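ok so for the tutorial part 2 we go from a plain amino acid sequence to predicted structure tokens. step 1 is just haveing the sequence, like this:
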Amino acid sequence: MRLGEGVEWTLHCCLTLGWLDTDEPVSTAKLAAIFELPPAYLNKRLQALVRAGVLTSTAGARGGFRLARDPKDITLMEVVAAVEGSEYAFRCTEIRRRGAGADRPAHEFQRQCVITTAMRKAELAWRRELASQTLADILVAAPAAAGERTRDWFDRVG
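step 2 — the prediction. this is what the tokens look like for a chain of 158 residues:
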């Protein structure tokens, strides 16, 4: 399974907003600048987090983004689902019903495909693991110096 770069970008932005811990919104321009990301593309990804209730946004010249909830209440799975969608990664197209299986009786296909079952089981384990980890967990696990450097950078750029 390969996740898009938007997941990495938004998780780092959430981490940054957690480190800043401010009531003031942080602009897309500043979040993009700290990671040297394209602001327009980042803004689209951050808007997805707003729609999912992970972030709040404020419009206008002094607008930007803030965490919508306490970091302990934001799971990594929420961020991933907001950016990537909530569909299963594996999509069964029932190829077992084509070719050599095309003339098989319908009752042979009443049970879900064993490959689909195995893939869904693995994906559910992955989703459960991401759902068990919060932004607060990441804030604690990240090096304290990284948070300090982030706050210093934001203080310098205003």
